[in-house]
Amino acid sequence: MEDRTQLNRNLAQMLKGGVIMDVTTPEQARIAEAAGACAVMALERIPADIRAAGGVSRMSDPKMIKGIQEAVTIPVMAKCRIGHFAEAQILEAIEIDYIDESEVLSPADDIYHIDKRKFKVPFVCGAKDLGEALRRINEGATMIRTKGEPGTGDIIQAVRHMRMMQSEIRRLVSMSEDELYEAAKQLRVPYELVQYVHENGKLPVVNFAAGGVATPADAALMMQLGAEGVFVGSGIFKSGDPAKRAQAIVKAVTNYNNPKILAELSEDLGEAMVGINEQEIELLMAERGK
Amino acid sequence: MRIAILALQGAFEEHKQMLERLGVESVLIRNLHDWHQPFGGLILPGGESTAMMRVMKDEALFEPIRKAIIDGLPVFGTCAGMILLDDQHLGCMDITVKRNAYGRQLGSFQTIYNIKGIGDVPMVFIRAPYIERCGEGVEVLSTLDGHVVAARQQNMLACSFHPELTEDTRIHEYWLSTINGKH
Asked: ipTM, 2 decimals?
């Protein structure tokens, strides 16, 4: 009777139309919850600071994560390194609601991702294209997000990844059934997953946008491109007025198709995070884990 | 008949699909402008109740929704939607709901269990709440392991679980039939 994969996909469905915010302290978690976040991502340093500090970046201190779990009633997520199943086991032991096997941290394995089917807790993974998304789903991920380029405040990579996924999905939908076998081979995924996308025109799990969202307009852009919700990392707590900006991004995700409302809530938000353009960065986190 | 679905955050699309399967037209409510359309019933979906409360207040939807339900608008709340109906939120139903009553995601589960007047139905509980106090006018429809997980009061129906995530349309059909005065 108990089907964890289904229950874990179901939790992601409940997060749809919402904003998941990176927080580093219980205080920030409370601000995020009050602003209307549908979940928080607990981590020691937000991606912009990870980028600035350099060095190896690892799973956060469980004590710090527990502090955030106690501070809020919404789901709490946390990141582990790609392939680091021991970190994932630790996060499962403290009953995290969702694990992000994330390219934001330094990868622990350059070949294998975590066998996520072995876990009872759900996993979300990043993807740049349909093949990556389906490979992660095949490994047991029950939610997908674009990789974008974390900690930059630059939306271009998230747009590129979402557009790529959507166009590849449309391509699969338009294929004749006998072409699907070759498509499965090219994408390096089982036929059944390709067949699902062909028949339903979408991934079998919820798909969020992440990496570089800094403004309500960025969030609306990603939603209009087909995202079902948005992760905001550095964009909120690196800005001038985090509470106000957080609330504005939440409302932008609900009314992403209403320019008049978007105009109102984009007013007077204070300074956005400064950000860095993609040509200026040395480390492309999106290239980690394919 | 047209049914409105509160679409501020959460699994509103799943309710829409459920209604489509039953041949019922629906309209999504994201702001006050959407609210001013004709409809005969309202669904409050699952999602995060704190997020929905925030947007409901910011979009000035809280009072109109509260008033419409108190004035008799048929409403059906699932999971977070049930939380919104209780005495701590919209204050429409005479119930107190315990949030995250089954713990974190590791406590999420599914089962098949009886609902009064409907029979055995699949129930999906996702970080689910249950009703810890029922007022006098509240009719309990299902009690699972000693906790009330479905209840009804006049024009209001609420459940802890997510019928919209299953293939079983009977709870939606039951609610629609109450609007038409058959129950």
From this structure: 0.95
Judge whether B164 counts as a catalytic residue. yes
Q: How far are the Cα atoms of A81, A130, A194 from residue A186, in angstroms, in the given order?
A: 27, 11, 11
* Residue B149 pLDDT > 60: yes
Q: Which residue of A has its CA nearest to B104?
A: A97
Q: How many Å lie between the alpha carbon of A60 and the closest alpha carbon of chain B? A: 19
What predicted TM-score, i.e. pTM, was given to this entire model?
0.95
Say yes or no: A14 contacts chain B, CB-CB below 8 A: yes
A261 touches chain B (CB under 8 A): yes
Tally of domains within chain B: 1
Active site residues per annotation of A: 79
- Chain B CA closest to residue A257: B30
Name chain B contacts of A243, Cβ cutoff 8 Å.
none
> Is the pLDDT confidence value at A256 over 70?
yes
Residue B46 in contact with residue B79, Cβ under 8 Å? yes
For chain B, percent of residues with pLDDT exceeding 70:
98
Flag whether residue A124 sits within 8 Å of chain B, measured between CB atoms.
no
pLDDT in tens, A206-240: 999 999 999 999 999 999 999 999 999 888 988 88
CB nearest A250 (choices: B47, B54, B162) = B54
**Confidence category of residue B68, pLDDT binned at 50, 70, 90:** very high
Dmax (CA) of chain B: 43
User: What range defines the domain where residue B64 resides?
Assistant: 2-179
CA distance B51 to chain A (A): 4
pLDDT tens per residue, range A30-54: 999 999 999 999 998 888 888 888 8
Question: Do the beta carbons of residue B106 and residue B124 sit within 8 Å?
Answer: no
CATH code (residue B112): 3.40.50.880
